[in-house]
Specification:
- Helices cover 30% and strands 23% of the residues.
- It contains ten helices and 17 strands.
- A six-stranded mixed beta sheet has the order 4-3-2-1-13-14. A six-stranded mixed beta sheet has the order 5-6-7-10-12-11, covered by helices on one side. Strands 15-16-17 form a three-stranded parallel beta sheet.
- Helix 9 crosses helix 10.
Length: 388
């Protein structure tokens, strides 16, 4: 059988308030095209289909439109829920989609209650162990499904790892055996776009728990595409788009797995090309303007280098870089040339002007100096009147 592994779609996620639903639809269509071209039998989606537990309607339309297209192309799928997905929303569709060979598993389940899915295709059999994200509140209940009693009240990583290992006992020598899970593996490379609390040490599962009898272990949760050192071929497919600027250099992909019972699986990556790239841009206003064409349609995080803090720099940059999502102004320090002796002889207005130049790296407007003089003179006159 041939499988396509993808994960972390995060459909509905915006970038600094900008909708990316068009890009998300495009990349799902690209994945569908790859599945057809590569003669895929089943797609493995390892969590975080949506970015929010309550996704907008256009996000649901994109995701379930993809699955409808799989049914039309006679391609099956196994889908596990992620920490961004609402389990009950996924559960509501299970009875509808299971008969169509779109097997959704919303919460951890015992092997005989849907946690292990047996697939038949072209005379071959596959055993897919499905492990969705384990919420803290379900940790003990999850442990009770398969682990011995002395493991029921263990740490999160121990329980999750024990569940992965226990699934190996349900693999079969005459089948293709795959573990599809949404979890954090100890030592894996994270990015800033994941929820920090769910990639912290208490959630880090050791890869030593993974069953050595698996042909392939399909992981979701981390957005950087990567292979994990483990007893069996283990991969994070990674997110399908660059979701934030911490992912700017990453080439997104899907993973193709060609597997047969009793033989090692052949695994390859196919890069994804849809969606706009993210990149950082740095320079003066003049240098950024000169390079504007080279940025194309990429979303930009811009750092403007300047020696003066002037109003309207961001608006000025957006005139020639309309795809600038985030603009930061970085003023370089300019040493004052005014000697201390000269400061002692200056009047109040001159001292204020010198302070403004030092702190704001620019000359104060004439109107500001005039207003300062007016206020200062008014205070002096009021003080004199009070004294008399």
């Amino acid at each position: 059988m041939r499988f396509l592994h993808t994960a972390d779609w995060h459909v509905g996620k915006q970038l600094r308030g900008r909708s990316r639903i068009g890009e998300q639809r495009d990349v799902l269509n690209e994945i569908l095209d790859i599945a057809v071209q590569q003669r895929i039998d089943f797609v493995l989606v390892t969590g975080d289909l949506f970015d929010s537990p309550a996704p907008p309607a256009d996000a649901e339309q994109a995701v379930f439109g993809f699955f409808a297209s799989l049914v039309e192309k006679q391609i099956g799928a196994v889908v596990v829920g992620g920490n961004h997905d609402h389990p009950k929303r996924l559960e509501a569709l299970r009875s509808l989609l299971d008969p169509l060979r779109i097997y959704i598993r919303h919460e951890p389940a015992a092997p005989d209650d849907g946690g292990v899915i047996e697939l038949q295709h072209n005379g071959e059999k596959a055993v897919i162990a499905a492990l969705p994200w384990i919420p803290d509140r379900l940790l003990i209940d999850t442990a009770k499904m398969m682990l011995p009693e002395d493991k029921w009240y263990g740490e999160y990583a121990e329980v999750a790892g024990g569940f992965c290992n226990a699934f190996g006992g349900h693999f079969k020598p005459d089948a293709i055996n795959i573990l599809a899970a949404h979890l954090f593996v100890q030592g894996a490379d994270t990015t800033a776009s994941e929820r920090a609390i769910h990639t912290s040490a208490p959630f880090a599962v050791s890869a030593a728990f993974f069953p050595a009898s698996a042909h392939y272990i399909a992981l979701g949760h981390l957005h950087r595409p990567q292979r994990i050192a483990a007893p069996s071929p283990t991969h994070y497919a990674g997110s399908t788009l660059q979701l934030d600027f911490g992912e700017a250099s990453q080439v997104k992909r899907v993973v193709i797995i060609d597997a047969h019972p009793g033989k090692p699986a052949y695994v390859e990556s196919v890069p994804l090309t849809k969606g706009r790239c993210l990149q950082d841009a740095r320079g003066t206003v003049e240098s950024l303007k000169a390079r504007a064409a080279e940025f194309g349609h990429d979303y930009l995080r811009v750092t403007v280098e300047t020696t003066t803090l002037e109003a309207g720099i961001s608006a000025q940059v957006r005139e020639f870089l309309p795809n600038a999502i985030d603009i930061r102004v970085e003023a370089r320090e300019v040493a004052t040339e005014t000697p201390l002796a000269s400061l002692e002889t200056m009047g109040p207005a001159d001292l204020f002007a010198e302070y403004f130049k030092t702190s704001q790296k620019s000359e104060p407007p004439e109107e500001m100096i005039a207003l300062f003089r007016e206020l200062h003179e008014g205070i002096r006159n009021e003080t004199r009147a009070t004294r008399t």
